[in-house]
Amino acid sequence: MDKKEMESVVEGILFAMGDSVETEKIANALEAPVEDIEEVLESLSNKYEKENRGIRLTKLEGAYQMSTSPDIYEYLIKLAKQPKKYALTDVLLETLSIIAYKQPITKAEIEKIRGVSSDHAVSKLVEYSLVQELGRLDAPGKPMLFGTTEEFLRSFAITSISDLPVLNPVQVEEFKIQAEAEVNAALAENKENDGLLD
Q1: 154 and 176 share one domain
Q2: Looking at the 3D structure of the chain, how many domains does it have?
Q3: Which helix (H) or strand (E) holds 27?
Q4: Alpha-carbon distances of 110 from 46, 91, 142, rounded to whole Å
Q5: By three-state DSSP, how is residue 35 classified?
Q6: Radius of gyration over alpha carbons of the chain, in Å?
């Protein structure tokens, strides 16, 4: 199979699959070395950009996915009229950050860090496809483990979790102090409200 034919097959595979496909799986399907497939994918990606095509190839942790060029987003929005949008509140961003840096993680571990219930936040993040269930922890009660998704990588324009910014210890300590202060303020407010009700 020559390079041109290989490009055609790889392009067809990515189009048909829709989701991301691991480079190794494509190589197995074509019975070709992974290095050759990587070269074909890079060639396709460069061709799409050079010719200003409406599609692009997105790389996600050893996998590739066919995606729409950012240049035509405005036209897609006009076509859809009501594009799917979601707002990430401070609570959702905080919960998502904990999951991203600590995954795989249970709800109980998230709540221990945040100091408050995280059921709603985790459910919303799963609904938005930014977080997914990864299985169960081998511990009493078999709690569910959560981690980020490919949609998370796409949304934050990173190719791997290893691309997340490294937090320095001072920032982490400041976040802990701030979180503790917020929890204590919330507890004090609840006690005050309880006193008014008595």
Answers
A1: no
A2: 3
A3: helix 23-30
A4: 41, 12, 16
A5: helix
A6: 22
Best CA proximity match to 40, nearest among 57, 60, 19: 57
Taken as a whole, the chain contains a residue count of 198
Strands 55-60 and 105-106: unpaired
Determine the pLDDT at residue 98: 92
State pLDDT tens for residues 136-186: 988 888 999 999 999 999 888 889 988 888 776 666 667 667 666 766 776
Kindly state whether residues 98 and 28 are assigned to the same domain.
Answer: no
Q: Are 57 and 41 in contact (CB under 8 A)?
A: yes
In this structure, are 40 and 16 located in the same domain?
A: yes
| Token reading at 130 | 């930014």
How many CA atoms are closer than 13 Å to the CA of 18, on its beta-carbon side? 0
> Residue 132: what pLDDT?
96
Domain assignment of residue 16, yes or no: yes
Range of the domain at 181: 168-198
Compute the Cα dihedral for 38, 39, 40, 43 and give only its sign: positive
Same domain, 158 and 172: no
